[in-house]
Amino acid sequence: FPVTIYGYVFGGPFKKVLFKSPDLNSIHQMKILCTGGQGFLGKWIESEAIANNHEFISYDMQSGKDILDRDKFYLECESNRPDVIVHAAAIADLYESDKNLDKNFSINVQGAYYIGRICSILNIPLIYISTCCAYGNVNIKEKLIDEQTMPIPTETYAWSKLAGKLSSCTW
Fold it and tell me: pLDDT tens digits, residue range 80-134?
């Protein structure tokens, strides 16, 4: 299920996002469910999805939709049957992550686990939005981060995002 991954480098998008059909030759309309859809990345993902004629479904705490309520999330996914789920919900504030460890763990790790499990049950592809913070203090002038770079998180937020990534793909 090929997709171009969303990302931010130094505060701006680094790639135009296109969801492609499995044959890689034509772009087709997709239904995209995005956790954290009203957040910083979620809003950008929404604008890109809509600009490319895709249907966008926001699943966000600001509208009363909590990823920790796994039964509600399951029902939402089952009834809407999105083509892909983009998991962008997170406690992303470094200070909030340190200050409220339980909330950080619940949303960034446990929430990712629930989403990964539900995607597995319903056979829905998952795009997990991680963070460059998971790689620690890499000097990008000396080395670019790629798939071979060893994660070395240095703060609570980064650890939780790495754990969330690992827990979301255990299925």
Answer: 999 999 999 999 888 999 999 999 999 999 999 999 999 999 999 999 988 888 8
Asked if residue 168 lies in contact with residue 114, where contact means CB atoms within 8 angstroms, the answer is: no
How far is 116 from 49, CA to CA, in rounded Å?
A: 22
Spatial contact of 128 and 109, defined as CB atoms under 8 Å apart: no
CB 59 within 8 A of CB 65: yes
Instruction: Compute and round to an integer the Cα radius of gyration of the chain.
Output: 16
Residues paired with residue 33 on neighbouring β-strands, in sequence order: 57, 85
Task: Give the bridge partners for 96, in sequence order.
Answer: none
Q: Count the Cβ atoms, other than its own, within 10 Å of residue 120.
A: 14
Give CA 70 to chain center in angstroms.
16
The reported pTM is 0.81
Amino acid symbol at 128: Y
Q: Residue 31 in contact with residue 57, Cβ under 8 Å? A: yes
Under 8 Å between Cβ of 60 and 37 = yes
- The pLDDT of residue 5: 40
What does the block give as tokens for 127?
Answer: 């795009």
Res 171: pLDDT: 66
